[in-house]
Automatic annotation (TrEMBL):
Metalloprotease that acts as a negative regulator of the Wnt signaling pathway by mediating the cleavage of the N-terminal residues of a subset of Wnt proteins. Following cleavage, Wnt proteins become oxidized and form large disulfide-bond oligomers, leading to their inactivation. GO terms for molecular function: metal ion binding; metalloendopeptidase activity; Wnt-protein binding. Its cofactor is Co(2+); Mn(2+). Keywords: Cell membrane, Glycoprotein, Hydrolase, Membrane, Metal-binding, Metalloprotease, Protease, Signal, Transmembrane, Transmembrane helix, Wnt signaling pathway. One of its GO terms (biological process) is Wnt signaling pathway. Its EC number is 3.4.-.-. This is Metalloprotease TIKI. It comes from the Eukaryota. It is a single-pass type I membrane protein. It comes from Latimeria chalumnae.
């Protein structure tokens, strides 16, 4: 693509004021998959900014803890209590298959960094029987060979947050966990199929 067209397809919006403000739409994928395709105007806007605000503050332990607890079924319920028996059995078999395959899906680089398949499986799917169905669906969608092979590489949002902290920029979030989590928890079975 010509330079001008590449800059236009950058997901970067500029709010013309002094100093300018920028809005950048990110996607939740490992940054290595997209970094080379992010236009220079977006990278430059990030470099020149003093403050960077993200959807959620993924560097804040409270955010991670709140996300985890928001995904859980209420009142000590288990997934087995809320899913049809056949679906639950198929899900359990699929997760057993994934656990069996995970050592074959991992890269030598991941193993060299001390990542073990059992640890990785538990980090992603641990406590799955206590999670709400919508979160289990999202989890299952991320348990593919391609996604496992890129585990350990931060998603673009987290990478930018880590870079912002490293560069001593002021960081923050525009949403709270509850604002993201509760609408998803309000979906019923027919809405997530």
């Amino acid at each position: 693509l010509p330079l001008q067209q590449r800059e236009m397809n950058s997901f970067l919006w500029t709010i013309k004021r002094d100093p300018p403000a920028y809005m950048f739409g990110t996607i939740h994928v490992p940054y290595t998959r997209v970094w080379d395709f992010i236009p220079e105007n977006s990278k430059r806007a990030f470099q020149e900014s003093n403050s960077v605000y993200f959807e959620l503050d993924l560097t804040d332990p409270y955010t991670i803890s709140a996300l985890t607890s928001c995904q859980m079924l209420p009142h000590g319920e288990n997934l087995q209590d809320v899913l049809p028996r056949d679906l639950y059995r198929r899900l359990k078999r699929h997760l057993e298959y994934v656990k069996l395959m995970m050592p074959h899906w991992m890269t030598p680089d991941q193993r060299g960094k001390g990542l073990y398949a059992d640890y990785l499986f538990n980090a992603i799917a641990g406590n799955w029987e206590r999670k709400r169905p919508v979160w289990v669906m999202l989890m299952v969608n991320s348990l593919t060979e391609a996604d496992i092979r890129s585990r350990g590489v931060p998603v673009l949002d987290l990478y930018l947050a880590q870079e912002a902290e490293r560069m001593k920029k002021k960081t923050g979030a525009v949403e709270r966990v509850e604002e993201q989590c509760h609408p998803l928890n309000g979906l019923n079975f027919s809405q997530v199929r």
